[in-house]
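$ ./design --mode recover --in tokens.txt
reading tokens...
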């Protein structure tokens, strides 16, 4: 494959010399982990989001697990989330011993549907099976209808954890995603294909100081060195206590230094993603694809650019694009259709909008290092694939 036809992935990190130098500076310092770089990164993210506290952890999955744990989720509790998400959103509840259920998605935005949630809550109230926590997932970078979900939480008494793995840099009703205006905790991911990266890593933002303290303790084996938090008297300055069973979910200073450097470019990254999305909107007109709906209350961070097309041609179009070096993908296989979840009693047909979407979706390349010519290349290959399929919507 020639350089002009180099493989174009659906997502890619953007690392510059400043990022490299930030990591090298840590390698030359006294701390590689549990040092000052983690605190700087936490301050950077919480300040950007407008939240009171940030707690860095080892991954976005760890952030979800910690969030549910500090909210007291355990055996016998129920957690609801969207079926259109990566499996971690649901798995985290099972790590805590809770049962998981799903709420179908909005047919336009593919975010968790407030209408479906309201109907499910009404039925659950009558049967005594209300959830302890609901996890709305900001799919593709666009915020869920958080004011509506928050209002339902006030009525039915559940806690909210926003899964914002796709949405750092996005806005909702004039505030940044992650500010916790509508939720108890927001979780973030810094995987390489996300908006900013630490290699692997995650964070919780919250406005509740006690939840932040619990999360910071949970990420470090449940251990504290704070005498005021200990049971009984401290034996001395060396002393620590394990107050509960925690995990080793710490982020290294190497990762945090990269994250802080990346945060300085976050707004530029998101601005470029929005330019690419607008270019896709324009250049894909006339092709038999339909972008996801936009909620006017939100401004997406554009982690993903997803289109829907005729289910009969999705696979041949996917394969034609891949063969031409365009790294399209599918986000996501509905979680309830995974074999492990089928064993829990979930079946096809339970969440029809999610399943309909899965049959029609295609994720196009989207990352800030893309050129306008890359977008035109995607369009040209996509048009050729449709012509070869002899099929359209």
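writing sequence...
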């Amino acid at each position: 494959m020639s350089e002009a036809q180099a493989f174009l992935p659906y997502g890619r990190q953007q690392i510059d010399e400043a990022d490299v130098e930030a990591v090298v500076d840590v390698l030359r310092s006294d701390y590689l982990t549990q040092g000052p770089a983690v605190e700087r990164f936490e301050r950077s993210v919480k300040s950007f989001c407008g939240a009171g506290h940030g707690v860095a952890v080892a991954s976005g999955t760890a952030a979800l697990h910690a969030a549910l744990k500090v909210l007291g989720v355990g055996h016998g509790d129920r957690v609801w989330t969207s079926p259109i998400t990566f499996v971690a959103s649901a798995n985290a509840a099972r790590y805590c011993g809770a049962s998981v259920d799903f709420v179908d998605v909005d047919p336009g935005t593919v975010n968790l549907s407030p209408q479906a949630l309201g109907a499910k809550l009404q039925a659950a109230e009558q049967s005594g099976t209300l959830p302890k926590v609901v996890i709305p997932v900001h799919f593709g970078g666009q915020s869920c209808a958080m004011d509506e979900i928050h209002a339902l939480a006030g009525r039915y008494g559940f806690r909210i954890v926003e899964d914002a793995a796709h949405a750092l840099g996005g806005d909702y009703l004039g505030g940044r995603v992650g500010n916790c205006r509508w939720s108890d905790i927001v979780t973030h991911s810094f995987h390489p294909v996300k908006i900013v990266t630490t290699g692997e890593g995650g964070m919780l933002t919250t406005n509740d100081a006690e939840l932040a303290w619990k999360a910071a303790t949970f990420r470090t084996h449940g251990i504290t060195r704070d005498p005021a938090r200990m049971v009984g008297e401290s034996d001395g300055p060396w002393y620590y206590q394990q107050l509960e069973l925690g995990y080793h979910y710490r982020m290294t200073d190497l990762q945090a230094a990269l994250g802080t450097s990346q945060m300085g470019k976050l707004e530029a990254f998101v601005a470029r993603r929005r330019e690419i999305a607008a270019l896709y909107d324009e250049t894909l007109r006339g092709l038999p694809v339909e972008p996801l709906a936009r909620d006017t209350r939100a401004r997406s961070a554009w982690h993903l650019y997803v289109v829907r097309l005729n289910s009969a041609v999705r696979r041949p179009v996917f394969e034609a694009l891949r063969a031409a070096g365009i790294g399209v993908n599918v986000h996501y296989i509905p979680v309830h259709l995974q074999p492990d979840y089928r064993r829990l009693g979930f079946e096809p047909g339970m969440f029809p909008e999610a399943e309909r979407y899965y049959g029609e979706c295609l994720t196009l390349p989207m990352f800030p290092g893309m050129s306008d010519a890359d977008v035109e290349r995607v369009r040209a290959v996509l048009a050729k694939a449709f012509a070869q399929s002899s099929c359209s919507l």
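exit 0
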